[in-house]
Design goal:
Distance between the termini: 29 Å
Strand content: 15-25%
Number of helices: 11
Largest sheet: 8 strands, mixed
Low-confidence stretches: 5-32, 119-129, 135-141
Strand order of the largest sheet: 1-2-4-3-5-8-9-10
Helix content: 25-40%
Order of helices and strands: HEEEHEHHHHEHEHEEHEHEH
């Protein structure tokens, strides 16, 4: 497999200009989310999660810790999932991977009990009964599925998600103050849907925007909040527009794919320019020949995808450890 494009890095700088977050992004005018964002790949045979479901600030979370915690220092990591949510075994296993590398991981239910509609049944029907009639049924089901996903996305805007993440971060920093102190702050990783929110949490935003609200009067003075995370990493983010990249201040690492309809090349390259101009420490790797969602834990038969999946995890883990 061809190696990913070389990373680009620039030193961090406080320079940032205001670009208030709006409800919709340019990405939302095109493709919304694909099957890789809402459906789990097969889970590794015999694997089982090692963490537990709990609550922080009355929000459901999956928590997984290093085996030697609290006897050895750990860093607090916020894990933001794709549309499959915290009950996905693959998401839990991936969180466990970070825990086995020294992070105390908190994976919040950012959807408040409303994960994305699942398209696995329609796919299975097409594979097992490929008759013309069944194919028509599947095509109709896929149309309904796409509509359901769009309706679901309309319920999952920043005005809902950001307050949830605020509460979890506040509660987690109190409950795991030792891990926050050990890492000098909170770290974050995000996959697909969660990728956008890594960027927002790593941005300097007006106070209202931090809480998921649009700025109503830009001429009036507004208080801008510092980023809520020390550093972040994201893989094949979705619904990301230029405005989501404009205020990033924390060091960020991006795992991207070629010709991604859910995170278009032109938006990615605009982000690269923004980071370079503002001297934001960053890393952008583009992985060729792999599907959107490839970095999420799950089994693939294609060896090239398996290798890319491991490289992507290593990239994100290394970034978090370096910062």
């Amino acid at each position: 497999m061809a190696d990913p494009e070389p990373a680009t890095k620039m030193p961090e700088n406080d320079a940032v200009e205001q670009s208030p977050f709006q409800g919709d992004t340019p990405a939302q005018t095109g493709a919304s989310m694909g099957d890789h964002c809402v459906t789990d790949r097969p889970t590794t045979t015999g694997a089982s999660p090692s963490g537990e479901l709990a609550k922080i600030a009355d929000i459901d979370v999956y928590i997984t810790k290093p085996s030697d915690y609290p006897h050895s220092p750990s860093k607090l990591l916020l894990f933001l999932t794709s549309g499959t949510g915290i009950h996905s075994m693959n998401n839990q296993l991936q969180a466990d991977q970070y825990a086995s590398n020294g992070f105390l991981v908190v994976m919040p239910d950012q959807f408040a009990g409303d994960p994305a509609p699942n398209s696995a049944n329609a796919t299975t029907m097409a594979e097992t009964n490929p008759s013309v009639i069944e194919q028509v049924k599947v095509a109709a089901a896929e149309t309904v599925q796409s509509f359901m996903i769009d309706m679901w996305l309309a319920r999952q805007g920043p005005e809902k998600v950001m307050p949830i993440l605020q509460k979890v971060i506040k509660g987690a920093t109190e409950e795991f103050a030792d891990a926050v102190a050990s890492g000098g702050g909170v770290y974050a990783v995000g996959y697909c849907f969660g990728g956008k929110y890594v960027l927002l949490l790593g941005s300097e935003l007006p106070d209202t925007v931090t809480w998921g609200q649009a700025v109503k009067d830009e001429e009036q003075g507004v208080v801008k909040n510092e980023p809520l995370i020390k550093a972040g990493a994201l893989a094949h983010g979705t619904l990301i527009g230029k405005e989501d990249l404009a205020n990033v201040k924390s060091p960020v690492s991006l795992v991207c794919i070629e010709n991604d309809q859910l995170f278009p090349d032109e938006i990615r390259e605009e982000g690269r320019k923004i980071f370079a101009t503002k001297q934001i420490e960053h890393e952008i790797q583009v992985y060729p020949g792999v599907p959107h969602g490839f970095a999420v834990h799950g089994e693939y038969e294609d060896v090239k995808i398996q290798e890319a999946q491991k490289k992507a995890f290593d990239q994100m883990l290394a970034w978090l450890k370096e910062h």
